[in-house]
Every structure is written in structure tokens, then in C-alpha cells.
Amino acid sequence: MGKVAAEIHARLTAALSPSILEVIDDSHQHHGHAGHRGDDAESHFTVKLVAASFAGQSRIARQRAVYAALGDLVAPDRIHALRIIAAAPGEG
Amino acid sequence: MTNPVHERIAGIVGSNDVVLFMKGTPFFPQCGFSSTAVAILERLNVAFESVDVLADMEIRQGIKEFSDWPTIPQLYVKGEFVGGSDIMMEMFQAGELQALMTETGVKPAA
């Protein structure tokens, strides 16, 4: 896991205690794209997580919780693009 | 609300049933997520107004504060914030976005 992916993993674990957490680095799919900064740069991610705290929360509330947990990582020079799949236990 | 940019945004979302704040235009989206959002609205066959945040730096920053949402694209329906492209896709796949458009009386694309 790259440095940024590891930081995403650590922050989401600390804030949301997810029972399932996957951080997928999609950066290789974006070579030559404006947000891609070279072969080693991590920039595009998908996070999939299941957390008990999401139960009863709207989709907007769940994503806001993820953005809040990531804090200053959600910035163009850190995470350029982020796809979030957030579920409560027993969903999907 | 005294922030003039927020007032501009409130005016836009208040005077159009469906507004997509995006990077680029529906013909030339400048980001994969904005492209996805446009494709969903076109599949739903609804009339929508788009705002290119890359062409307006005030709105680019202001919309993030206005919605308390850090990313673009952002969808508004009847003045209410719906979400970004992940939420649009989840709702579209569940049939909920179509239902929202129907229930709120959004007009089909001309």
C-alpha cells in the first residue's frame, strides 16, 4: 500500500471503526490525465467501507463522515479524486 | 445569508429544477465524475441547468461551502442538495433518482 493509501486507511479506521475497509488506488487508470502526477503519484482512490455508525444515516451524512475523517487529505494536491462506497452492516 | 457568492448560488438552485455543478460542460466534461453525472441525467431524460465551476472560481469555492461538500460534481433538485456522483449512481441504480424526479415534478428534457 502506498503512503497516501495507508494514511486514508489509518484515518478512516480511527474515525469510523469500519468492520470492512478497502482502499483501492485507481491512479494507474488516469495516466496522462490532469490529476495524475507521474508514475509513483497516488491521486485517485476508491474507498469501500462498512461501519455500524452508518446505520440510519443518509447517503449524504455517510459521505460527509468520510470526508470529515479524511480532513486535509481531501485536497487537489493530495487526493485528486475519491469514490466512496459506504454501507451499514447488513446492506448490499 | 450575506455572502454574495452564496446568494448567487441560492439564486441558481432556486430558479432551476435541476442544477448540476460540474467541471466542464455537458458536451465536454473535464472530469470523469462530472461525465458520469451528466450521463445519468441524460439517461433520466430530465431538463437540467449546468454550471461549469472551472469557468467561475468564485462558484468553484463557494459551492463547497454552500453545500458543505468538498467535491464536484454536485446535484441539486428543486433547491435541495442531492449529492455527488457516487450518490447519483447509487440512487440511479436503485431507481431512486428517477423516483425523485417524478415525485418532485421535474420536467423532461426538451
UniProtKB/TrEMBL annotation, chain A:
The lineage of its organism: Bacteria, Pseudomonadati, Pseudomonadota, Alphaproteobacteria, Sphingomonadales. PANTHER family: BOLA-LIKE PROTEIN 1, PTHR46230. InterPro entries: BolA, BolA-like_sf. Signal peptide: none annotated. It holds the Pfam family BolA. This is BolA family transcriptional regulator. One of its GO terms (biological process) is iron-sulfur cluster assembly. Belongs to the BolA/IbaG family. Coiled coil: none annotated. Transmembrane segments: none annotated.
TrEMBL record, chain B:
It comes from the Bacteria. GO terms for molecular function: 2 iron, 2 sulfur cluster binding; disulfide oxidoreductase activity; metal ion binding. The keyword Transmembrane helix does not apply. Keywords: 2Fe-2S, Iron, Iron-sulfur, Metal-binding, Redox-active center. Gene3D superfamilies: Glutaredoxin. Pfam families: Glutaredoxin. Residues 18-82 form the Glutaredoxin domain. The keyword Iron-sulfur applies. [2Fe-2S] cluster binds at C31. NCBIfam families: Grx4 family monothiol glutaredoxin (TIGR00365). PANTHER family: GLUTAREDOXIN FAMILY MEMBER, MONOTHIOL GLUTAREDOXIN-S14, CHLOROPLASTIC. Belongs to the glutaredoxin family. Monothiol subfamily. This is Glutaredoxin. It comes from Sandarakinorhabdus cyanobacteriorum. The gene is grxD.
